[in-house]
Specification:
Blueprint lengths: L4 E10 L6 H19 L3 E9 L3 H9 L4 H18 L6 E4 L3 H16 L3 E11 L4 E3 L4 E3 L5 E3 L7 E10 L5 H10 L4 E2 L1 H12 L5 E2 L1 E2 L7 E2 L2 E6 L1 H6 L1 H4 L18 E5 L3 H14 L8 E4 L2 E3 L2 E2 L10 H8 L1 H11 L6 E3 L1 H30 L12 H11 L1 H10 L3 H22 L1 H7 L1 H22 L4 H10 L39
Parallel strand pairs: 1-2, 1-14, 2-3, 9-15, 14-15, 16-18
Antiparallel strand pairs: 4-5, 4-8, 6-7, 8-10, 11-13, 12-13, 16-17
Helix pairs in contact: 2-3, 10-11, 11-12, 12-15, 12-17, 13-15, 13-17, 14-15, 15-17, 16-17, 17-18
The protein binds ligand ME8.
Ligand ME8 binds next to strand 1, helix 1, helix 7 and strand 14.
């Protein structure tokens, strides 16, 4: 196993609702990175899971007429099922109701106490159950309906007054700023980094980290009337997985995490609270947090009340899994908000997949099958046009690696598709079908150059569309052991027998109305 580790995490999702396309999006981004790093020789650990405590889940359970445990068992399963439906490849699925997690949270709490960062006080202020977040008076306003809401999120707030333990976050502002300064890559994209810097520069208030008015959570050690604030509990999942508090655990090698992938809604928890808790406990903060944007549906916010959430199952059923995976990461610059439009998905399916990539594979593989005895054709002397195309394909690995290290999925795909376009132009210019009679040796070389280009492109597309690319690599006779990036610089071997070619990316045809 490689000594280079790569630990990537999704947020752990609340189990108050079933997963929609927003949840699938975050996990998909992590899945692509995990698959890419595995192919690139890293010892990867990819974690996802569910956040099962707190008032929001307790309330959702009560309205479903179930105990919190029975309710979380049920809804947690729908997030586990999503893994299979979307072909995600996590190494583990964590639930905050697991005993190992209670142990980890309580151990972390004791470290914070030992550091002098926890004190008992009384909380009096506004709380949003939907966001599981405290708000100060100035962050709320009363709407026309007389209800008070949090301005940043629009969620209703209620007044909470109860004894509470506090974490001395106010004392951490300078140390956090020094940490951001020293680690410029800690927060991505830059716009989010600036947002966090100005928030922390504005001064931090101590954070209430326990509740006494309900009981669905991890008990505070030594004071069981209190349960831990759900965000302290939830964030801890990332180290529970690595064996915390047992730093001799074989999984501890993965800490600090290389990347916490999150949506922009939860960046403050990950970039302010979490590194402060970790530093207070003498642990290293994660190396990077990336906050992506928000999906809306044909211009509207997705929500339960508008009944317009998009569910991954429905999309996959209508368009196929790999096209959906491709579209989500290609269409919107990663980090920006995006509006989901079926028209755009169909455009990508027919344009990028069927016409560009699919057509390239189909043209080349079918001419090879007809003319080259169902074998990888022989490679003759190369001319400049050949080496130019091969060179561009060869340069892709470094380009894609550096784009993905910045979580620029859209740019990684764009550079790959530039080479696909080059290859299609090369087919037209070289016209291998016309060479059949005049110069069959040259035709073979042209086909070899194309097959080799498709091999390189397809190796890199694997993390995005695992099933389709497996089929293309089968059709090129690339063995399973030749599919990691260690084989990127090798070449297709002439003479290897090839199976009958099959189309991989069909055009989308609107189903006929019943
Ligand atoms: O916040 N567009 O869980 P959560 C894009 N339990 N991404 C979206 C989205 C949308 N419309 N809707 C949701 C929590 N997401 C906490 C996390 S982590 C220690 C605890 C994604 O179920 C996005 O990643 O509300 C967002 O951050 C996450 O789901 C919120 O999931």
């Amino acid at each position: 196993m490689s000594s280079r580790t790569y630990y990537v995490t999704t947020p752990i999702y609340y189990v108050n609702d079933v997963p929609h396309i927003g949840h699938a999006y975050t996990s998909l981004a992590c899945d692509v990175l995990a698959r890419f790093k595995r192919l690139d020789g890293y010892d990867v650990h990819f974690l996802t899971g569910t956040d099962e405590h707190g008032q929001k889940v307790e309330t959702a359970a009560a309205s479903a007429g179930l105990s919190p445990q029975a309710f979380t068992d049920k809804v947690s399963q729908s997030f586990r099922d999503l893994v299979g439906k979307m072909n995600f490849s996590p190494d583990n699925f964590i639930r905050t109701t697991e005993p190992r997690h209670y142990k980890s949270c309580q151990a972390l709490w004791e470290k914070l106490v030992a550091s002098g960062d926890i004190y008992l006080g009384k909380y009096a202020g506004w709380y949003s159950v939907r966001d599981e977040t405290y708000f100060v008076e100035g962050e709320t306003e009363v709407g026309e309906d007389g209800k008070r809401r949090a301005i940043p999120t629009g969620a209703e707030v209620s007044w909470v007054e109860e004894p509470s333990y506090f974490f001395k976050l106010s004392a951490w502002a300078d140390r956090l700023l020094a940490f951001y300064e020293k680690n410029p890559g800690f927060i991505g994209p830059d716009s989010r980094r600036n947002e966090i810097l100005s928030f922390v520069k504005g001064g931090l208030q101590d954070l209430s980290v326990s509740r006494t008015s309900f009981s669905w959570g991890v008990p505070v050690p030594g004071d069981a009337k209190h349960i831990m604030y759900v965000w302290l509990d939830a964030l801890t999942n990332y180290i529970t997985e690595c064996g915390y508090p047992d730093t001799d655990s074989p999984l501890w090698k993965y800490w600090p995490a290389d990347l916490h992938m999150v949506g922009k809604d939860i960046i403050r928890f990950h970039c302010v609270f979490w590194p402060a808790f970790l530093m207070s406990a003498g642990l290293a903060p994660p190396r990077r947090v990336f906050a992506h944007g928000w999906w809306t549906n044909e211009g509207q916010k997705m929500s339960k009340s508008l009944n317009n959430a998009i569910y991954p199952d429905e999309l996959v059923k209508a368009y196929g899994l790999d096209p959906v995976r491709y579209f989500l990461l290609r269409e919107v610059p990663f980090g920006n908000d995006g509006d989901f439009q079926k028209r755009a998905l169909i455009g990508r399916m027919n344009g990028d997949l069927a016409n560009a990539y699919g057509n390239l594979c189909q043209r080349v593989l079918s001419i090879v099958a007809k003319n080259c005895g169902e074998k990888v054709p022989p490679k003759g002397a190369l001319i400049e046009a050949d080496t130019a195309l091969l060179g561009r394909a060869k340069g892709l690995l470094a380009a894609v690696r550096s784009e993905l290290d910045e979580q620029a999925f859209h740019r990684a795909l764009a550079v790959i598709w530039e080479v696909i376009a080059d290859a299609n132009r090369y087919v037209d210019a070289q016209a291998p079908w016309a060479l059949a009679k005049t110069d069959p040796a040259r035709r073979d070389t042209v086909l070899w150059v194309l097959a080799e280009t498709i091999r390189r492109v397809t190796l890199l597309v694997q993390p995005f569309m695992p099933d389709s690319t497996a089929s293309i690599l089968d059709q090129l006779g690339v063995p399973a052991e030749g599919r990691s990036f260690a084989s990127f610089d090798s070449e297709l071997v002439s003479g290897i027998g090839l199976p009958k070619p099959q189309g991989v990316f069909p055009r989308y045809v609107e189903p006929k109305a019943a």
